[in-house]
Amino acid sequence: MGQGETSPMGPGETSPMATVPRRAPTPSGAVMWQEARKHERKLRGMMVDYKRRGERRREYYEKIKKDPAQFLQVHGRAYKIHLDPAVALAAESPVNMMPWQ
Q1: 86 to each of 34, 54, 78, 82, 97, how far by Cα in Å?
Q2: Boundaries of every domain in the chain
Q3: Which of 22, 36, 46, 89 has its Cα between 20 and 30 A from that of 5?
Q4: Contact at 8 Å (CB) between 96 and 90?
Q5: Of 42, 88, 46, nearest to 96 (Cα)?
Q6: What is d(CA 35, CA 61) in angstroms, rounded to the nearest whole number?
Q7: Do residues 27 and 35 lie in contact, with contact meaning Cβ atoms separated by under 8 Å?
Q8: pTM of the model
Q9: Going by C-beta distance under 8 Å and a sequence separation of 6 or more, which residues neighbour residue 7?
């Protein structure tokens, strides 16, 4: 109040509304429940986001995945090797050789 104005209360008295806190200093049961629900919704949203991100990552890698045999490179020179005919037949048998694509 300004200078010269008097309050309805005496000089040492305080308003009863001034002493009552608007909110309890510790959260009440309803506030705690609301906070728990809010946190639960946040966690659920994070889990859904991680799941969707994992699905997108899996789809991406499935699209770019290729057969490793496509990247096989052989370097060298052609030489005729004279070996034992039995060894040559065993080396060229379909059991040991991979078909060329």
Answers
A1: 82, 53, 21, 11, 16
A2: 23-91
A3: 22
A4: yes
A5: 88
A6: 39
A7: yes
A8: 0.37
A9: 1
